[in-house]
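Morning!

This is the sequence you dropped in the shared folder:
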Amino acid sequence: MHAVGPKSVDIDADVDADGDEAREYVENVRLLSEGSVRRSFDPYTDIDWDNPEFAVEANEEGWILPAASDVMARHPWYQGLPTEKKIAIGKYRTANMCKVALQNECVLISGMAVFNFGLPVGSPEFEYCTHEMIEEHNHNLMFAELIKRIGPAEPGPMWLRRGRTAGALAAALAPNLFFMIVQVVEDVPDCMQKMILRAGDQVHPLLRNVISIHVAEESRHISFTREFLKKNVPPKNPLSKFVLSMAFPLIIRMSSRVLLLPSMRFYRKFDVPKDVQRQMYGTPEAAQYLSEFFTDSRTLAHEIGLMNPVAKALWKMLRIDGGRSRFRSEPLRRAR
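The structure's back. Tokens below.
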């Protein structure tokens, strides 16, 4: 299998006058492609969907939201609900997060297809992005299968449905902006899902299995995005970098809301009091907790030169400012 896979890349042909840094970038991307060849997952053979332990009705309390990964689960209102309602909310929230993740993956796939269109066959980016698109398609099949079992899910946010072609457009006109979007829509869910996995046996085994596969492959995807941005953003002219520095926090703010916060439809369905809504997500403590989901993104902004004084003010105004991570996916301090 993959007889002419990623090892067919001629590194020397892709290295330009930049020398060692360009060579290191090509080698890193090639290694990520090799990782996709060596270890990939199939949603129908690597998950035993018919396992009785994976049945949605088995261990139903495993659908209760873990306090370590969801602000709602930390609020006394949720904690005081009957077990049946906690389970119903957990299933609904999980199904909706999977639906948004699926829609984000579709935007990502369409953008990568456009990005790949003009690349030379055999270039490191072409090989890697092709592997990633295959993996993202499998993730969508996996999410869809999970939604079918625990659903129903909402149709997804209106702005995402109307902007479904934005990924392809950005990839065609502004690849750095596109991969910045990719960075955000992969980094935030990755952080959330790792927090869920740290909850261990508290989480339903089917959800743990799905998340484990997603996290394993998303690690490569995030690594590529960071490599791409580190290579391509710093050499840009000051005006381009300034525009990107303004776009980065805005993308985070818009995308993260649909991933981390419930919709108004959810509030109506489960009769969440308005004062509880404000307490869960409108307090300084909640804002601080949510801002720590963006630690890796803030660190990347510093590393690629996008944290200028104006950008810092914008991060603060959007209430997503804060510290940096010592290493990628460092566990959240408040979660610990």
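Headline: The chain has a mean pLDDT of 87.

More detail when I'm at my desk.
O.
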